[in-house]
Write a structure and sequence with these properties.
Blueprint (H helix, E strand, L loop, with lengths): L1 E5 L4 H12 L5 E6 L15 E5 L16 E4 L5 H4 L2 H25 L7 E5 L11 H15 L5 E5 L3 E2 L7 H12 L14 E2 H13 L10 E2 L2 E2 L5 E5 H7 L2
Parallel strand pairs: 1-2, 1-4, 2-3, 4-5, 5-6, 6-11, 7-8
Antiparallel strand pairs: 9-10
Helix pairs in contact: 1-6, 3-4
């Protein structure tokens, strides 16, 4: 199998990349991004990695040299980093959709009959109709991806992410420390809000991409719209704590 990943330098993406390289089932792993991920010398499977350097606005015009079995989108920023809501949307909405379209068009152009999957990280409580900007943006990107009719779409909705980031996010770091200490209170109705490590999200993305069986058996809803004849799986925060643990 071959994989493509964008957002490979982030908290979740870095762990997805390491997992792909270490998994012998993947022959080639293609990374798209502004900079090559910094991997430790001797990283297992590093010889499988190929890199396409690009800016986010370049995505629609890129050419993919290999068939893709599994695509992973781990893009994500913050309003503080982006500087504005418009710039946030360029990363968390537009670039995500462009990456999905790139893989879709590439597979169609090669007349590939192999089923392929697209895995993406959004957020807990993503809803295109939300009054909260962040949740609304994540809901909008979910709706747009569903509308593309991808062969297999997996949407991962984590709560607060725990783990060391390359870039400092002061308020988020404080929140991480607090919620790590108080994680025992996330039981019952609060269980879905339990903080989750970036590695655990990555482990779920890799595991779900590989598995053939349905991991979500109930009819899923995206912003109250029933998904009909589209293979979409929504793996929420509570499920991610359960599936791989």
């Amino acid at each position: 199998m071959n994989a493509a990943i964008i957002g490979a330098t982030g908290l979740i993406g870095a762990n997805v990349l390491l997992g792909l390289l270490a998994d012998e089932r993947y022959q080639q792993v293609m990374v798209l991004g502004r900079r090559l991920p910094q991997l430790a010398e001797g990283t297992h499977g590093i010889d499988k990695l190929s890199f396409i350097q690009c800016q986010l606005e370049d995505i629609p015009s890129l050419s993919i040299p290999i068939d893709i079995d599994h695509a992973f989108c781990c893009l994500g920023t913050t309003i503080k980093q982006a500087g504005s809501q418009d710039n946030f949307n360029k990363v968390d909405v537009t670039a995500v959709i462009d990456f999905a379209k790139l893989i879709q068009q590439h597979q169609l152009s090669r007349n590939s009959s192999k089923p392929w999957s697209f895995s993406v990280v959004t957020a807990l409580d993503a809803n295109a109709n939300s009054s909260i900007f962040y949740n609304r943006a994540k809901g909008q990107v979910q709706q747009a991806l569903v509308a593309l009719n991808l062969p297999k779409l997996m949407i991962f909705q984590p709560s607060l992410l725990l783990g060391e980031r390359a870039s400092q996010r002061t308020l988020e770091d404080i929140g991480q420390k607090f919620f790590a200490i108080a994680s025992g209170v996330f039981i019952g109705p609060l269980a879905k809000y339990k903080p989750i490590t970036g590695k655990l999200v990555a482990d779920n993305m890799l595991a779900v991409a590989i598995k053939d069986e349905e991991l979500v058996t109930d009819a899923e809803l995206v912003n109250d719209t029933k998904l009909d004849k589209v293979e979409v799986r929504i793996i929420d925060n509570k499920q991610m704590h359960r599936l791989v643990n």
